[in-house]
Design a protein that fits this description.
- By secondary structure, this protein is of the alpha/beta class.
- It is 32% helix and 15% strand.
- The protein is built from eleven helices and twelve strands.
- The chain has a seven-stranded parallel sheet with strand order 8-7-6-9-10-11-12, sandwiched between helices. Strands 2-1-3-4-5 form a five-stranded parallel sheet.
- The two termini are 20 Å apart.
Length: 315
Amino acid sequence: MRIVIPDDYQDCVRTLACFAKLDGHEVRIFNDTVKSTDELTARFADAEAIVLTRERTRIDAALLDRLPKLRLISQTGKLAGHVDLAACAARGVVVAEGSGAGSATAELTWALTLASRRHLVDEATRLRQGRWQGHLGQQLGGQRLGVWSYGRIGRQVAAYGRVFGMKVWVWGREGSTAAARADGFEVAPSREAFFAESDVVSLHVRLSEHTWGVVTDEDLGRMKTSALLVNTSRAELVAAGALERALMLGRPGFAAIDVFEEEPVRGAEHPLLHLPNALCTPHIGYVERDNYERYFGIAFDNINRFAAGTLTLGS
């Protein structure tokens, strides 16, 4: 099959052990992202299969109409609304997804939390510049950790907080809080208390039409001037512009962010990158070798299943 893999930013897919699963196929890889229908059409014109890295490329009906050779979209991880499934089905394009469950995103969440509380990036930079200590850090032990949504990643982050001696509580939907209680975690008495009394708030909510902008200016305005907000989930969970406004007002006092509304971010063209009280990373939560072996390994298996006739529309 003729396969196109877009959005391989680090040119790393061909270095994965699982890439050998595509031996015998014709594979073309692109290391950047394009957005327009014309540009995507040019890249995918001869593709029989496309392998998508998470939500980096959107596939809609207008694009599909210009890709008559396309037969399969093999998604790394779960679909998240970036592929028009109805349009694919109407055109006979099979869409396959997989899982990629691991600890990579939770680990980055904790790395960002530690780095923010101890000002690790600033301190390391100061030392390289010939200067000595510049900040007074804050330990996590004894602090209140608020975890919004107790799903797979939220559960891991809550467990990290417990190990570090934090007072962990959870907020979220009823099913989420019930699971947290069953594991021995406290549930915040109210949304207002969750934001006002947490020293660290970590967001792990799945993005949907119901959770878009779920964190408001009012929520952030309740946070302590010493508090930290961590978001390794989705930027759109926070109301547009609310985090920038909140950080400039000093509530919360700091944020650690791995996700942005429009990605990739080039030329430092995002307001958070220019705020001294924000630590930003380029959406690397799931970008980790073992995770990629799982994600792409399943995606490549689905291509081979399709080529063998064991993966079909509706199966």
